[in-house]
Fold:
Amino acid sequence: MTPYLLVSRSAEYESRLRGLLGERLRVIPGEFVRLGPESVVDRAGEPRIVLLGPILNYEETRGLVNELTDRHPNLGVVVVREQRSDLEDWVDELAMHAVLSPNANDEATLELIDRLSEWLVAHGRAAMDDFDAPPELEIDDLSFASLETFAEPELDDVPAGIEDPPADVPAESASDELAQAPVQQAWDFPPLASGTPSEAIAVVAPKGGQGKTTLSINLATGLAEIAPNSVVLVDADLQFGDITAALALVPEGTIVDAVAAADDELVLKTTLTHHDDGFFVVASAPSPELADHVPAAALGALIERLRRLFRYVIVDTTPGLGEHSLIALEHVTDAVFVMNMGVPSLRAVRTEFELLNAIGLMPVNRHVVLNMSDRLSGLTARDVEHIIGAPVDVEVPRSSAVLLASNRGVPLIHDDVRDPAAKAIRSLVQRIAPDAFPKRSIIHRKRRSNEPE
Structure:
């Protein structure tokens, strides 16, 4: 028996903890979390103390805590997590014994683990020798059973609802019938009711790396909750747009196809890619050189056409104020300006504001987002407002949950709803659509195409 268990997505933290605990530590990589908490606990053995994190979101951590404590009621639970503003919610709602910063030094880490071990012994939940290193195994003692616990489940069972064709029906006939059966899609294009205003939102940033694409994706996700299948997200970062990659989508067509079909509604719809969260995507050009096939005027015409089909049109623009970005701003009702806490980024935003006001292209509805805010940056929100010459409408704190959600191909506001960054982005959605509150009790989580079913 190994007394300590770590479930984590951080290879660096795993390596560090192995150095501290040696053979007393069993590790289950975070990839197994995608299979569900039961799958993780099946592989856990009988630990005395489990450490969960870092880089696990609230829902994942809650599922693991519940499943582990159900099966092992005397287990000691430590959550390894940054000290963020929502920590109080975690402590109040999760059955944990301690919170450990992933940045705690080795001495503090071992001290916390030792104190929890002593507490478990003192309360009759464990024996002192439970925390000794497991005996070394001889080669002859090893069995394939320990390896089989990590094997993928075999697909021996036939899924329910699928039967062999009757004996008197040739196999070829059964295949033909399946091939001829109509494919039912789970979505449609709801008509835009007469008189319903269509809103278009451009997401703009002076430089790359500001989080513009992440905000665009989550804005589309939030708006789709109140207007399912009537939201379209246009990846107008023509050379290096990566929305389909961030959402783990295989595009049906690209913006090159869409601008060519803008005059034909039926053909245009075939170029759109549907996301399971109820919105459509116009994918970016498949390679940088094809961006030349999308003239700025054609992008403007595409936005106008999409506004006649969808309740909300969101345009993720190329960084800066190039010709395509200016055209996009000319055809939208709202603009979301995104910046980080770097002084060069902030000064560039001020220059953008001055230029757009001078040429009359500042949209009527402006939303200023300070992204990846950090108290350790040396600047405050008031400093930011002074530099850009405008108030900040939404402040999104720096959070590892953003990168985790992106790497999983899931919009943040549906992946970790309690994360402070997700809550801040939700407030941005509600600035545009005040009734955009989450309505589903179970948030959909889309698997990547290469994740196990």
About this structure: Residues 137-184, 440-453 have pLDDT under 50 and may be disordered.
